[in-house]
Amino acid sequence: MGNSGAYERMVAAELQAWRKRLLQRPGILERSAKLLNHWTNRVIPERIQQILTTGVKGMVHASLFTAKFLPGNPIAGGKTLEEKDAHAKAVISRYKRVASAEGAGTGAGGLLLGLADFPALLAIKMKMLFELAGHYGFRADDARERVFLLYVFQLAFSGYEHRLKVLERIEHWQETADGLPSGQAFYDEINWRDFQQEYRDAIDFRKMLQLVPGIGAAVGAWANYNLVEDLGETAMNCYRMRILRQRAPAE
């Protein structure tokens, strides 16, 4: 298999290390942050909870059922996995810069603009996922591929218990895809309150610091950059895993 085979063996080793990190039980810091977030969820007014839930639900609906996030050329990237990875890394770098600039702007604007950053950053993340799908050769205009993107998103931004369930579905994607209901039925089955809380729990510590006067701009840029980086790495590894598993029987 030559250099391509050597690269894919290196990727396989990287995937093993990445999976091991995902399966690690949360440490003291993560457990403490989770407790803080549970407390935060209890004190946030119900009206705000509903607004956040509706916002996340609307954004996900737009990504699953409209062409809003589809790139102009849905299938792109290179022929080998190494070439696909190179294209993907360039995409992630671009979106990290966009997210960082957006976070700096809203972070400097105080509480209201800081809250406005929530849907703006979500839109940036979803657009990046759609573009990455194309670079790995998967058609994001296919309903099941859009559901896959939603699972990737949840894998990146969920607590330990939910993360294990999502990883299982992604690792056995063909079986998962075969058992999926139609797109709208799948969407209707999602517990959107839990979905947005899992997402917020994963990003709250970094994003709450963005609301602190005097440091909001710097923290907003740092938080958005790292959150997009986390999602980009997760998406890359999920697609690499799918590609290697698809090839395994023929090798």
Could you characterize the architecture of this molecule?
The protein is an all-alpha fold and 251 residues long. It contains eleven helices and no strands. α3 packs parallel to α5. The longest helix is centred in the C-terminal third of the chain and has 32 residues, at 216-247. The radius of gyration is 18 Å and the shape is globular. Residues 107-114 have low confidence and may be disordered.
The run of helices and strands is: HHHHHHHHHHH
Mean pLDDT across all residues, rounded? 76
What's the end-to-end separation, in Å? 10 Å
The rough form would be described as globular
Beta percentage is: under 5%
The counted number of beta strands is 0
Rg calculated over all Cα atoms: 18 Å
How many helices? The count is 11
Q: Give unreliable regions as ranges.
A: 107-114
SSE-based structural type? mainly alpha
Share in helix: over 70%
Largest sheet: none
Keywords:
251 residues, 11 helices
Break the fold down into its secondary structure elements and pairings.
Elements: H1 2-23, H2 28-43, H3 46-65, H4 81-107, H5 110-135, H6 143-156, H7 160-171, H8 173-178, H9 183-189, H10 192-209, H11 216-247
Helix pairs in contact: 1-11, 2-10, 3-5, 3-6, 3-10, 4-5, 4-11, 5-6, 5-11, 6-7, 6-11, 10-11
